[in-house]
Amino acid sequence: MAALLPEAHQSLGLVALKDGRLGVKIGARVIADRKDRLQYIRERVSCNVRDCKLEQLLPKPNKRREQDLAQATLLVVTSQEIDELGETDNIAQARLHMNALLAQLRRVVRILVEHGFTIIILTADHGYLFADETTEPMKIEPPAGSTVNLRRRLWLGSAGTSAPSSWRVPLQSFGLETDLEFATPKGFAVFRCKSGNRAYFHGGVSPQEMIIPVLTVTAKAKPRPRFCPMAWTLTPGAAKITTRFFSVRVSGQATESSLFGAELPQVRVEIRAGRKVVSRPVSASYGFDDATGDVHLKFSDADPQQVEPNTIALMLEEDINQPTATIHLVDSATHVELATPLTVEVAIAI
Q1: CA distances from 21 to 53, 172, 193, 209, 263 (A)
Q2: What is the model's pLDDT at position 152?
Q3: What is the pTM for the complete model shown?
Q4: In this structure, are 255 and 159 located in the same domain?
Q5: Rounded to an integer, what distance in angstroms lies between the CA atom of residue 40 and that of residue 30?
Q6: Is residue 323 part of a domain?
Q7: pLDDT of residue 79 exceeding 70
Q8: Which residues lie closer than 8 Å to 35 by C-beta, 6 or more apart?
């Protein structure tokens, strides 16, 4: 991520730190971690800088984060969950989080726009390979020589030896100011190393690892549709949460006449443990958007003042380590709670 910092395009180096980690050098400044990166930004950007982690904005900012959003000219939001889960071989949870992350990013973008941010840049520090677990035929020996850092898809050091199964080159070839050499397996092989990951890798030069997405979102004001005032009703499919799957029936009654082109909002149903969303929508009776998990409701043909009831199925993605959870119905665009949350008992061993 240091490559995104101010002045990194002018001078970017790589150094070995005393504790065995690697650090980035911009000019004469050595940057080792997130704390260093944020401090470097504050020193070189002449505006009010705030920072937070992605999870601290979800499902909605607390009072402290609301203050940060109100005061910040530049807000730096970071997320490391994919790396944390993948690099610790928590494969099942990593897959679930990857599926949910796009919906989380979409939600955070809307939160930022609602708080006055007009330019939002989303990017990553690397891509990755995430497929089947490694087997012995996939493992190759790393280069000999003085090793500074060894992972499944990269070797950094000096005086390394070349081998037909790997590719070795001075890091200076990439424009980095360092004397270190870089080696990576060819194809989808991995280096043999202690405590190596089993299925999640990055650091090599495959397109999946090297091509980094950069998305710039520019907020533009547009007229909001007139939503019909509603009295919403949530009906749980069971009295307790006893399995990973749980259903909620959504219905509603218009409290004002809807004869003038009023619409129903897109909605999202969530199960929360405390402030944390622990569920993902997987289906609905009608109007389900597979890409976002949002549900498009409609009025009943028999009674235009009534919402056509819709049963939404949810899958728990995380453990619920408390006796109760809450069910929420929110407007997908504004994240406003539409109904009073329901409290349900949790009786599941996950």
Answers
A1: 23, 19, 16, 21, 55
A2: 93
A3: 0.74
A4: no
A5: 10
A6: yes
A7: yes
A8: none
Query: Which residues span the domain enclosing 339?
Result: 230-346
Q: What is the DSSP string of 226-277?
A: -BPPEEEEEEESSSEE-SSEEEEEEEEEESS--TT--BPPEEEEEEEETTEE
Query: Which tokens in the block code for residue 336?
Result: 């406003």
What is the C-alpha to C-alpha distance for residues 294 and 287, in angstroms, rounded to an integer? 8
Question: Which DSSP string corresponds to 144-201?
Answer: PSEEEEEETTEEEEES----TTEEEEEGGGGT-B-S-EEEEESTT-EE--TT--SSEE
Whether residues 188 and 237 fall in one domain: no
pLDDT in tens, 193-233: 987 788 999 999 999 999 988 999 999 876 565 677 899 99
What is the three-class DSSP state of 67? Answer: helix
Q: Does some domain include residue 3?
A: no
Q: How far apart are CA 19 and CA 29, in angstroms?
A: 17
Number of residues in the chain:
350
- How many domains, the chain? 3
Q: Is the N-terminal amide bond of 59 cis, ω within 30° of 0?
A: yes
What whole-number distance in Å separates Cα of residue 314 and Cα of residue 219?
Answer: 31
Q: Write the pLDDT tens digit of every residue in 130-179.
A: 977 888 889 999 998 899 999 999 999 998 788 889 999 999 998 899 99
Q: Are 40 and 29 in contact (CB under 8 A)?
A: yes
> Residue 273: beta bridge partners?
276
Label residue 293 left, alpha or beta by phi (over 0 means left) and psi (-120 to 50 means alpha): left
